[in-house]
Amino acid sequence: MRIVVCDDHLLLLEALGLALGAKGHDVVALAGTPDEAIAAVAMHRPDVCLLDVNFPGGNSVAAIHQIRESSPETKVVMLSAEADHAVVGRAIAEGASGYVGKQKPIVEIIEMLDRAVQGQMAVEPALLQRALRPQKTTEDPLWALQFLTDREWQVMRCIMEGQTTEEMAGALGVQRSTARTHVQNLLTKLGVHSRLQAAALMSAHGSHDAWPVHLR
């Protein structure tokens, strides 16, 4: 992977860069602030940006959208010493693909980066559910729809049409394994365990207006 790493603690920043490099990855830039990370991503267009959450001037969540805008193919994985589910939720809403703890060994951090690059949601399932689920879920059974990507909406349509994984892969123009990954991401966000449950949820509570305007 080609990686930009951003952290305001210089010692940790350099240690992460060395550790990732020692594992065979190409650390194209080390950034000390979110603004430096935005500039580095725009210049190098890496596969992934490992972005620390907390900085002296606040958190870096606002930088996620700018990073993704300057390099849409770059995935953003947040790095934090705390598993704050509220921050995780905001980060995902802004376009982050993952969230990993600083206390994790480098092998697990790399695994999360790799999952993000492959298009998976690189967040521990329990943390993801706490992050995306509001305090009163009964008020809106479709609360998680706001967090779906365009691709996941397309997968939802395929599920609603009863397509098999193979048919879905053909319709989306992706490999079967990629289609399965998209399905799993969708099910995880909705908090259901099967395609049938996802379809039932949409049939029972969804409407034409629930779909994004450009995908109706």
Automatic annotation (TrEMBL):
Keyword Phosphoprotein: yes
Keywords (A to Z) from UniProt: DNA-binding, Phosphoprotein
Record keyword Phosphoprotein present: yes
Sites bearing 4-aspartylphosphate, chain numbering: 52
Signal peptide segment: none
Ranges for domain HTH luxR-type: 141-206
InterPro entries: CheY-like_superfamily (IPR011006), NreC/VraR/RcsB-like_REC (IPR058245), Sig_transdc_resp-reg_receiver (IPR001789), Tscrpt_reg_LuxR_C (IPR000792), WalR-like (IPR039420), WH-like_DNA-bd_sf (IPR036388)
GO molecular function terms listed in the Swiss-Prot or TrEMBL record: DNA binding
One GO BP: phosphorelay signal transduction system
UniProt xrefs under Pfam families: GerE, Response_reg
Annotated ranges, domain Response regulatory: 2-117
Annotated TM spans: none
Name by which UniProt lists this protein: Response regulator transcription factor
Species of provenance: Pedococcus sp. KACC 23699
Lineage: Bacteria, Bacillati, Actinomycetota, Actinomycetes, Micrococcales
